[in-house]
Amino acid sequence: MSINFKSEEEVKDYVKNLGTEYRFGCYQEKKPEVCHLLGDYFESIDKDQEKAWKVYQNNCDTANFAKSCFKCGNYLAIGRGGQKQDRNKALEYFEKSCTHGDMNGCFRAGILSAFISTAKDPIRTFKQAMALFEKGCEGKHHESCYHLSGVFMEGYEREKIAKDMKRCFDYTLKACDLDNMYACANLSLMYQKGDGVEKNPELAKKYRTKAEDLQDAVVKQRQLMFQEGLNRT
């Protein structure tokens, strides 16, 4: 059955039925992927973050559903859904998300671990943060690869990590191949200057063009979203 999305009444009925389907799929059929969708429904449609938190938490704790674990990490990191901000618990959920296959969880756990490693009595080390970024990069998470490239571009004296432009190049190339526009821009400069790789003007131009194309795509997407917002009644 097709839905006329210009009809407010049909859209309301569709959304209501969607909520009913998600509740049945989660509470009766016990499907983790549907429970996660129910959490999203509570969060985005009902605007009830406390209900969403309960669904995400249960789905993570009982079904180990990676995306729900990631959501729990987000809620605890900033204090949403009736939860107090707790970065240590947030880290545990991000790590669980990572363990069960969500590379966003690996990246966020890496960021939090790096931050926590600077505390007086850290529960994580920067070495552990790097391992999480490595896992994310291996799982084709472009931000993880890009973050690693930055570590080796500058080095990190406190952790005795030396500047290494060859390793920086390797991670930059991986990030660019995964369409990270900042990595592509850096890759172009590296080929232009011969940093970490032999100079190659043709490849410098190729990756500069790719970075520009990716930037144009981002701008067009933002314009489209803005226009859609203006057209809503």
Automatic annotation (TrEMBL):
Name assigned to this protein: Cytochrome c oxidase assembly factor 7
Keyword check for Signal: no
Source organism: Cuerna arida
Coiled coil (UniProt feature): none
GO CC terms of this entry: mitochondrial intermembrane space
Superkingdom, taxonomy of origin: Eukaryota
Signal sequence extent: none
Similarity annotation: Belongs to the hcp beta-lactamase family.
UniProt KW keywords: Repeat
